[in-house]
Design goal:
Shape of chain B: globular
Number of strands of chain A: 11
Radius of gyration of chain A: 14 Å
Strand content of chain A: over 45%
Number of helices of chain A: 0
Number of strands of chain B: 11
Largest sheet of chain A: 7 strands, mixed
Radius of gyration of chain B: 13 Å
Oligomer: heterodimer
């Protein structure tokens, strides 16, 4: 596709259930990021992939959160035993690795809005 | 602890006025980016600044990176309703780093 695609766009779940959020990055983009945004505020970094490996997963809030990326493309963010404080918009972004000395432009999807009741 | 502090957090002004949004840190950044986000959409890149003291202009928007690379500002001249949105600054701590740290954003409303 032309841009970063995320699904589902909206997810309402009950506390304690597991959820999976999917991100399909721009073709050819080697870097993939997950961020979390609450109430239209700033973005909280969760995890970053380069290819299929995650050099930085320092932002994952707890061991209930995990993410994987396969084939250097699609990524899935899984939240187990969801809690109400997990409610937020989860944004995925991808970028090209533009080389030394430069940080590439992040292209964002529209996000997955998660509501935990 | 917020690594990048943006101010003001909210700003509502009339069409035609000028405004400045600030992005400050006690840390040095290799580069800073500014994004704009509209409701229901992901952020979209406006500009990247990489050199201390750098000034970039994008039509009515002027971006500046501080000499010490710890702060940045966004100035909008003659604001228009289409400028309404959430403005986010984002910094890379290390040269060539792929992880961006975001500020909490400035929600700008331009009233006709």
């Amino acid at each position: 596709g032309a841009g970063v695609s995320q699904s589902p766009s909206n997810k309402v779940t009950e506390k304690g259930k597991d959820v999976e959020l999917r991100c399909d990055p721009i073709s050819g983009h080697t870097a993939l990021y997950w961020y979390r945004q609450s109430l239209g505020q700033g973005l909280e970094f969760l995890i970053y992939f380069q290819g299929n490996s995650a050099p930085d997963k320092s932002g994952l809030p707890s061991d209930r959160f995990s993410a994987e990326r396969t084939g250097g493309s699609v990524s899935t963010l899984t939240i187990q035993r969801t809690q109400q404080e997990d409610s937020a918009v989860y944004l995925c972004a991808s970028s090209l690795i533009v080389g030394r000395g430069a940080t590439g432009e992040l292209f964002f999807g529209e996000g997955s809005r998660l509501t935990v009741l | 602890t917020q690594l990048l502090e943006q101010s003001p957090q909210f700003l509502s002004i009339q069409e035609g006025e000028n405004l400045t949004v600030y992005c400050n840190s006690s840390s040095v950044f290799s580069s800073l980016q500014w994004y704009r986000q509209e409701p229901g959409e992901g952020p979209v890149l406006l500009v990247t600044v990489v050199t201390g003291g750098e000034v970039k202009k994008l039509k009515r928007l002027t971006f500046q990176f501080g000499d010490a690379r710890k702060d940045s500002s966004l100035h909008i001249t003659a604001a228009q309703p289409g400028d309404t949105g959430l403005y986010l600054c984002a910094g890379a701590r290390i040269q060539g780093a792929q992880k961006l740290v975001f500020g909490q954003g400035t929600r700008l409303t331009i009233n006709p």
